Amino acid sequence: MSNRSKVLYIVLLLGALAAPFIGYPIFLMKVLCFALFACAFNLLIGFTGLLSFGHAMFFGGAAYLCAYAAKTWGFTPELAVLFGTVGAAILGYFVGWLAVRRQGIYFAMVSLALSQMIYFICVQAPFTGAEDGLQNVPRGKLFGLFSLADDTTMYYFVLAVFIFGFWLIYRTIHSPFGQVLKSIRENEPRALSLGYDVDKYKLVAFVISAGLAGMAGALKSLSLGLATLTDVSWQMSGEVVLMTLLGGMGTILGPVLGATSIIAMQNYLSSFGSWVTIIMGATFVVCVLAFRRGIVGEIAHRLKK
Amino acid sequence: MATDYILETRELTKQFRGFTAVDKVSINVRRSSIHALIGPNGAGKTTFFNLLTKFLPPTSGSIVYNGHDITREKPAQTARRGVIRSFQISAVFPHLTVMENVRVALQRKLGTSFHFWKPESTLNHLNERAMELLTEVDLESFADTQTVELPYGRKRALEIATTLAVDPELMLLDEPTQGMGHEDVGRVVDLIRKVAKNRTVLMVEHNMSVIANLSDQITVLARGTVLAEGPYDVVSKNPLVLEAYVGSAEAEVT
Ligand SMILES: Nc1ncnc2c1ncn2[C@@H]1O[C@H](COP(=O)(O)OP(=O)(O)OP(=O)(O)O)[C@@H](O)[C@H]1O
Ligand SMILES: [Mg+2]
């Protein structure tokens, strides 16, 4: 890591630690959850070259699993999040196994179709609370000791999990495995001809991405106290694509910035009612036209020159 | 074993929806030789390479490599046996640096390529070898350049360095000099001669002076079938070959 990025990460960390004294912890937690979701998605689109159009199934699926475990079985928060994460990773293994053999748009279609299946299961299943979802999910006590009922305390728990997830993605991207992923993104036939079983690499990347997307969804259901059908809907899959493209796919911080901007817009523009969607759509179009590489991608590009 | 053939194909055939692109091709490639595969456009040369490297499944026939029947293997499996191809259209990793292009090929044999929890710096000890390979193709001064910024001829040279990095036993080169300027061609010819010292090369090439210069054996393919076989002197005088080339590559033969 260069000195400049080290300084940047330290500043960001200090900012994140100080944030609940300036902003609303609930809003901040939501930002962190979606930032992690977008980073997990970016591992596929930005570093492996796979466009998944069904990532809501992992986010929302884990949100339900975590909420159910915390509410019905009284899991402690760290175990509930772990449960959601592992559940999403296992789902990711099966979905990935079916999807990674497909190329390009077919991959996106398979992921979308499977995600719709999960959506319908969530609509029908007895334990998801149908239209109401699972509400009033208790945050419980961390390790059975520290109550997370206070929003600021909960925020620091979310931050800690976020940092772990972010670190894991960073590590993955900058690892021997990450090098192979990038070569697959750059030229799949070439990677194959050098002797790499590209499908296996894609599958491992898919499982990591699904697991971390699940971790984000699980955290979200604990922090906001609910898991609903919105979390598994195709709109949610679309939103994470938007966040990643807006911030800059294939950059490490882009998805964080993209998620922050979109959540902030949804939050502060909510008084405009249904106009939010239109304002967001317009912002998105302008950004994509003005900065093809996404905001962070564009900044990095300018700095390099 | 009686033969010293590294690769043998037996009546290898590939049909695309009724159209036969490769038609019962049986060739033997002698170990440690440079074997050229020539033929007019659309003769089926690239398709033949795709069959050998498993990028396409054959319709019928078989492929024997080092005594093993590899006809039904998967591409990566065959590559790991030491059969490495290059592509007709330059195949590099454009948004990796030149050094990383070579290193990604070198790292496979470390066996840590699934290790997502290890830092990239565990690959640094490969840099020295990567640099040697880059030096072999005169790219050492470009090591930190983004590959996308290299001129075309340099990209092709990098492709050869990357192929060499996996130390292939059999190198398949699909038109390595295509689209290159005069000096670049000379450089690639020297390079191929050098690297062929301890391995086998099977190459598709349109440039006849390159063929005359390098090849020990030539197979001429036309419309998917073998038209002629032999050393350059014999093949270049074969009337069938001359006829097949009329109109398509006449200028190159003469
Ligand atoms: N995937 C495919 N589907 C259908 N037809 C194909 C396919 N690949 C190749 N062909 C056809 O097979 C024939 C042989 O093509 P191939 O690319 O092997 O020729 P080539 O000898 O490499 O030619 P060139 O010198 O132009 O590279 C052509 O007629 C081509 O159109
Ligand atoms: Mg060809």
Keywords:
heterodimer; A: 305 residues; mainly alpha; two-stranded antiparallel sheet; 13 helices; 2 strands; 72% helix; B: 254 residues; alpha/beta; Rossmann fold; six-stranded mixed sheet; five-stranded antiparallel sheet; 10 helices; 33% helix; disordered C terminus; binds adenosine-5'-triphosphate; binds magnesium ion
Explained architecture:
The complex is a heterodimer of chains A (305) and B (254). Chain A has one domain. A two-stranded antiparallel sheet of chain A has the order 1-2. Chain A has 305 residues and is mainly alpha-helical. Helix content of chain A is 72%, strand content 1%. With 254 residues, chain B is of the alpha/beta class. Chain B folds into 2 domains: 166 residues, P-loop containing nucleotide triphosphate hydrolases (Rossmann fold, 3-Layer(aba) Sandwich), CATH 3.40.50.300; 73 residues, no CATH class. In chain B, the strands form 2 sheets. Chain B has a 6-stranded mixed sheet, sandwiched between helices. In chain B, strands 1, 2, 3, 5 and 6 form a 5-stranded antiparallel sheet that branches. The C terminus of chain B is likely disordered. The radius of gyration of chain B is 19 Å and the shape is globular. Helix content of chain B is 33%, strand content 24%. At the A-B interface, helix 7, helix 8 and helix 9 of A face helix 2 and helix 3 of B. The structure holds adenosine-5'-triphosphate and magnesium ion. The site of magnesium ion has 3 residues of chain B, from helix 1.
